[in-house]
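Protocol step 4 of 6: structure prediction from sequence.
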Amino acid sequence: MKRIPTGYNPNGMRIQMRKTSQHSNGFTLIEVLVAMVVSMMVLGAVGTAFFGMQTTALNVDQRSNMALNSRGAMYLIEDSVRLMGFNPQRDISGNNIVNTATGAFLSFNRNDLADPINAADDTITIGLNAADDTGRDGFADNGVTSLVIDGGNVADDIEAIRFAYAYDDDGDGNVDLSANNFIIWAIDSDDDGFLDTTLDTDDDGDIDAGDAVNGGTLSPRVDISRIRAVKVWLVVRSQDQLRGSPSGGTMVVGDQRYTPNDDFAHNLFTTTVRCRNKA
């Protein structure tokens, strides 16, 4: 019987043997681990981008609300101050228009706009909620409070308010100027009816960090009936804490300095209002 060599069929044809690929049984452990690492890196990058966009959107929303809140508050303050001394009947003495003009609180009289002919004079007050500003320094005792105008809460999330006043003491129809020809901004520091403290202590035309905290002595003192314009500083805080790094630093708020130390956003807004009925 004829012997058939190994690797040949009975007809003498060579059998072609195929080598089994080392990859035919799937991925190796190293390949799987590399794929997992890459996938995790991609997912991490996507997650970081997503949360970053979400944080940015939330912060923008918070700051937008702060801007709306502050603009509304400032509008109401400006509207009230412009009508200081409004008196169609001309029965309010010029000396009885301004009641209080401290750095934290403003009170004045005008004729009731609802019925200017028959109604009694209306006393308008502007300041923080007294229950949350017990020291009457214009800074909320526990973070934030409401802005109060004429006895009603008109804006929330207010941290601070300060005032300063320009005056016409010589009666020439123009506000008095300093030695360097800048407007003199002053306050009645002890609520005795006389402006006695000037804020622009370096007389450079700006009330900033270069000026002395608590201001300097105004001499001679000026009766508050001579007030002709009001400058307002208003600090507003975001409703919620913000992720990331909210705005910070020290703010110049009138004759005071304020340095927030929390995770909220804080914005300082200022405005100047001419008392047109006292010109």
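Step 5 (inspection) to follow. The chain has a mean pLDDT of 84.
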